[in-house]
Amino acid sequence: MRTTPHELPKLPYGYDALEPYVSKQIMELHHTKHHKMYVDMLNSAEEAYDKAESTRERMAIQSALRFNGGGHLNHSLFWMNLAPPSDKNKGNGGVLKDGPLKDAINKSFGDCDTMRKEFNKMTSAVQGSGWGWVGYNPLVDQLELIPTHNQDPLLTHIPIIGVDIWEHSYYLQYFNEKDRYLENIWKCINFEEAEKRYREARKQKTRKN
Q1: What are the structural domain ranges in the chain?
Q2: What would the DSSP string read from start to end of 148-208?
Q3: 1 pLDDT exceeds 80?
Q4: What CATH number was assigned to the domain covering residues 24-83?
Q5: Is the pLDDT confidence value at 129 over 60?
Q6: Does the domain at residues 88-207 carry the CATH identifier 3.55.40.20?
Q7: Alpha carbon of 156 to those of 29, 133, 139, 146, 208: distances in Å?
Q8: Residue 105: is its pLDDT beyond 80?
Q9: Which positions are annotated as binding Mn(2+) (predicted)?
Q10: What three-state secondary structure class fits 55?
Q11: Is the peptide bond before 12 cis (omega within 30 degrees of 0)?
């Protein structure tokens, strides 16, 4: 089923780089404990799948593969999705420049501020744990907002921006103020990375056509 074990990816910035919007404590715990757990459990599940001798045994492992595989996939995307905030003179977080992504956002939502408000409203309404996504729908050639639950990966669209809404991503800093976390996380969104994903998504659509 696999050739090499999955590994915890390194972050492209320090654990304190997203402060004051995401604390060093949260980033370190989130990356070294939570994400690492998904990586370790995914490796264990794949090893068990390889050793399974019956269809029944393999079926019993499917939920662990989906949950931990989704956790690893989602978090790997999430880290690249973030950047040190520009309003604190740390980096390019929160800056949406003119270009294809901005044009697509304006086409799909009117403007970035409207998208952000609709995204936050949708994601705040997720009951329990999950994710909020800005995804590209190649069938209609536009961006759409999609929630997913638990660690389910976004499979219906090509992910462009994803935000973790599990409590471990914000509770130590924001407590029960999920809306404030959602408002502030946009100041750390790496729109340059999001535009790279959008450009690649459009290329995939063009190649298929």
Answers
A1: 24-83, 88-207
A2: EETT----SSEEEEEEE-SGGGTHHHHTT-HHHHHHHHGGGB-HHHHHHHHHHHHHHHHHH
A3: no
A4: 1.10.287.990
A5: yes
A6: yes
A7: 30, 11, 11, 9, 16
A8: yes
A9: 30, 75, 164, 168
A10: helix
A11: no
The token duo for 144 is 């759409």
List, edge to edge, every strand of the sheet that includes 142-149. 142-149, 130-137, 158-164
Average pLDDT for residues 11-34, to the nearest whole number?
Answer: 98
Confidence category of residue 175, pLDDT binned at 50, 70, 90: very high
CA distance 113 to 205: 27
pTM over 0.85: yes
Q: Establish whether 30 is an annotated binding residue.
A: yes
Instruction: Give the model's pLDDT for residue 208.
Output: 63
